[in-house]
Amino acid sequence: MCGVCGCGKGETRLEMGEQAQGHTAHDHRHHDHEHDHGHTHHDHAHVHHDHDHDHSHHDHSHPAPAGDVHSLRDDPSRRAHLVSVEQDILGKNNALAAHNRRHFNSHGVLALNLVSSPGAGKTSLLVASLQRLLPGTTVAVIEGDQETSADADRIRATGAPAIQVNTGRGCHLDAAMIDEAFHRLHVQDGILFIENVGNLVCPAGFDLGEAHKVVIASVTEGEDKPLKYPNMFAASSLMLVSKVDLLPHLDFDVDLLIANARRVNPSIAVIKVSATTGEGIDRWLKWIGAARDMAVASA
Amino acid sequence: MHEIALCNSLVDLIRDQQRQRGFRRVRRVIVEVGVLGHVDPHALDFAFDVEARNSPAEGAVLEIREIQGRAWCMDCSRLVTIARRGEACPDCGGFGLIVEQGEELRLKELEVI
Question: Which residues of A touch B10 (CB under 8 A)?
Fold first, then answer.
């Protein structure tokens, strides 16, 4: 019970007379009673009494300033209660990704989300792919990078339209960034390459609405990359093993890399490629063509 | 450190809940995190303290409940428990596993006043 105005849990009426006006900051959330609507102090200056009184449960929230007489006297633990929420923390991103996916489908666009560590050769591979696809195929690129626009400049040099999304301190692209960039690209019936920020951890959790994630692992990295970053390899439909032209100079076991990738994703497809020699690029473009046919068929 | 972005989304969800339910502030935030997911609980905890500032959840305790990893073994045709991705089926030693549980990232409950 409140020692100042006499109101408290279990009471059904409250007469707020002269004393009540002394409550400069009146937290009413614990009041489980109805108010007497006959009282006249509603237009007093104390702002915490300006709620309307046609409710019977005081579950509205008033920020209680310091010195709140009720708060000082209440034991907060008595009022604390659990509310069940059950919501996916990535729900908003996932909803936007679903929106993007519908958007891509309705525009006849196959969206591929390219992910890798920094320096795995995403941009070089993309440039080599675009040079083969253009001018016969409609293509567009969204470039995610933390700071520079150097990658987008390299892409534009091929003639493909590219939008640079600088994530600043952000370590990944999210669905909202892709939504905005896609609206500016005006792609219809083509392939959208999304080059994610070079990072094998963070982009794994953020669905962008793509048809497939494609992970690029170069032979200059370790064979254990899939085990160190399993979520990205698990989320990807295809692994491109890049820079295979360097294999004669390296002590690298490609079969071990592939076995490790299949340990975390038994169904992942694998293509060995080199942007330098062009090895495997045709197979990669064939894979894209098949993915596009499937996307069109299911749209 | 995508945990910062995740905590940003988490605080947004809490603000939504505050608008809907009208509580004053949050004392405890209970989240479920699958052990096979992409979230580092320590990073999440650290990021939460930062992102919750000036929100109804400022100073709230983040309680992380781990959800164990469960996968369907295609060779054994049954559900098995795994601690991390890339781990073999505890029964047959194979890697033909399809993850069924363990990637959750869910705001479960709030303790509010």
Answer: 89
